[in-house]
Amino acid sequence: DAKTTQPNSMESNEEEPVHLPCNHSTISGTDYIHWYRQLPSQGPEYVIHGLTSNVNNRMASLAIAEDRKSSTLILHRATLRDAAVYYCVQWNFNKFYFGSGTKLNVKP
Amino acid sequence: EAGVAQSPRYKIIEKRQSVAFWCNPISGHATLYWYQQILGQGPKLLIQFQNNGVVDDSQLPKDRFSAERLKGVDSTLKIQPAKLEDSAVYLCASSLDPQGFNNEQFFGPGTRLTVL
What we know:
The complex is a heterodimer of chains A (108) and B (116).
Chain A: E1 9-13, E2 18-23, E3 32-38, E4 45-50, E5 55-56, E6 61-64, E7 70-75, E8 84-92, E9 95-98, E10 102-107
Parallel strand pairs in A: 1-10
Antiparallel strand pairs in A: 2-7, 3-4, 3-8, 5-6, 6-7, 8-9, 8-10
Chain B: E1 5-7, E2 10-13, E3 19-24, E4 31-37, E5 44-50, E6 53-56, E7 65-68, E8 75-79, E9 88-95, E10 106-107, E11 111-115
Parallel strand pairs in B: 2-11
Antiparallel strand pairs in B: 1-3, 3-8, 4-5, 4-9, 5-6, 7-8, 9-10, 9-11
């Protein structure tokens, strides 16, 4: 199975940038990297995805390493509402492989 | 636009009993997924449908779990008989096109199952 590895937890101050890392050393050339986040008692919510190039949207930025074995989700200004578990997901054809996620704590 | 609907939200049963979960995906979404999320872990894909056909069910414990998606819309996931280790949140998700570039998944709120 394709696997991603992430730190168990990270902490950030409100209104500061946050960089959430993910390793996906078994990634193949056609696998996309997706990021989802999950608030307590809710289903996961899509954040961003990419293949090779860095990606930006209204929620975050995704930086993918040149060898594609790692990526970083960037929240430019963390807010209290960004406190959640962030999952790095490797998409292999029709299969999504969720890692165990990083719990982000945002301090006011 | 209505999101993915799931019911019930919570269910408590005794081991060896049966239970069923229902999911209504976003209108027009061809692909439907069922995930199992054990406390403290990421979701694990159980089964994936495209329209009313099964694309992947390799991680579905077929001796006790079954799922169907009649008419390519709603889906039900059944466990019979339940075991203690089936206690988890069961998530349903849908996406417009699993093989296209834009394959964001939309998740429902989940059903929390407790097996006593």
